Amino acid sequence: QPEVQLSEVASEKILIVYLTRTKNTKAVAEMIHEKVGGRLVTMELETPYPEDYAAIVAQVAQENETGILPPLKTKIDLTQYEVVFLGFPTWGMQLPPPMKTFLSENDLSGKFVIPFNTNAGYGIGSSFDKVEELCPDSKILKGYSTKGGIERDGILFVMEGTKEVEVKKEVNDWLSSLGF
Ligand SMILES: Cc1cc2nc3c(=O)[nH]c(=O)nc-3n(C[C@H](O)[C@H](O)[C@H](O)COP(=O)(O)O)c2cc1C
């Protein structure tokens, strides 16, 4: 348990920033927001990724290989935030390049950093480890991950019906376990 009681952190000090394409990670971000409040921000790129699945997969693979950091349109002054939730899908078994950009251009030292993720069922890959690597002086808390869409198979948004109910419960239990 962290030395700060997270349930007592003021709403103005909580930021939830997330990357989403098919809105599964967005749905989880909104569940977190419902419970902890704070500011909810979706991450936008200067040049949006292609709509076409094969094209985005190819572009992300190239960015991951070369270390290219795609420029973000989203700029956030992090000064006032004490708790930063970072949400992202798994892309190419890694942290998506835009989140690498975000963590490279922002200093999260001294803050609580809490990752969350959706993926097609292959897991988080190296994404949570990469968050630790890019936030060496942050207080990183246990993350949450769940299966989202499988765009390759035409399964896009899945956070509805029983899945939504199940994820909401898991998210609430996870946040409680962190002290929210
Ligand atoms: C470019 C790209 C790469 C992906 N790579 C993986 C992967 O390596 N492993 C995995 O489990 N899912 C992968 N997925 C599937 C997404 O992680 C999954 O559909 C996730 O729920 C999408 O989140 P979103 O709806 O918030 O965009 C990939 C999806 C895209 C678009």
Automatic annotation (TrEMBL):
It comes from the Bacteria. Keywords: Signal. Residues 14-179 form the Flavodoxin-like domain. SUPFAM superfamilies: Flavoproteins (SSF52218). InterPro entries: Flavodoxin/NO_synth (IPR008254), Flavoprotein-like_sf (IPR029039). It holds the Pfam family Flavodoxin_4. Gene3D superfamilies: 3.40.50.360. One of its GO terms (molecular function) is FMN binding. PANTHER family: EXPORTED PROTEIN-RELATED, FLAVODOXIN-LIKE DOMAIN-CONTAINING PROTEIN. This is Flavodoxin.
